[in-house]
Amino acid sequence: MDPREKWDAIYAHEDKVAKPDPAWVLNACRELLPGQGTCIDIASGLGGNAIYLAGEGYSVTAMDISSAATEKLQHYANNHSLDINAVVTDITAEGLAACRADLITNFHYLDRQLFPVFETVLNPGGVLVFQTFVEGKVANIGPSSKRFLLAPDELASAFPGLTVLKYLDESANPDATHPLAGRACVIARKED
Fold first, then answer.
1. Residue 69 to residues 25, 54, 103, 141, 153: CA-CA distances in angstroms?
2. Exposure string (b/e) for 60-70, b if CB count within 10 Å is 16 or more?
């Protein structure tokens, strides 16, 4: 099964009306975000992060490979007058290179070819929030294939052109209910 079919099958069964929760770090560290402007939400799924950020005043482009997810997200956004453009796309460095944003969010999606592109896409003063699972994680959650896992401490230095504002690593946390268990997160800004 190709990735588009896999994610469409997963999201086809999700409730069309339910509002998914945003990532914990977005609210917990909101003072580090630009506060307004354009946002690109990478691998947005049903759009918990996109919905939260649009509610905070951002103009959000939510990108995902699943048409089932993006259709549900766009339906929700339209019904709640949120500034979200949900786009079905296979997220690639080439496709993203022409974009510009004040905020990029990337949760639980790992494509290292996008790392240098994120630095280019951010406007001066823009912020990247990147969080995903780490190899050797203690909690039994998330992917198990190394292809989809960060190396230990990889994220701390993954964006050399950005200034790290906050780095969190809970890969050793065994509590699967903790919002960052098994994951690392970086919040980094592109200087003016």
1. 22, 17, 21, 22, 31
2. bbbbbbbebbb
pTM, to two decimals: 0.91
Distance CA 140, CA 65 (A): 26
What does the block give as tokens for 59?
Answer: 């103009």
pLDDT level of residue 7 (50, 70, 90 thresholds): low
Q: How far apart are the first and last CA of the chain?
A: 44
Residue of 67, 33, 31, 27 lying closest to 51 (CA atoms): 27
Please say if the pLDDT value at position 10 is more than 70. Answer: no
What are the pLDDT digits (tens) for 104-161?
Answer: 999 999 999 999 999 999 999 999 999 999 999 999 999 888 889 999 999 999 999 9
Q: What CA–CA distance (Å, rounded) separates 96 from 177?
A: 33
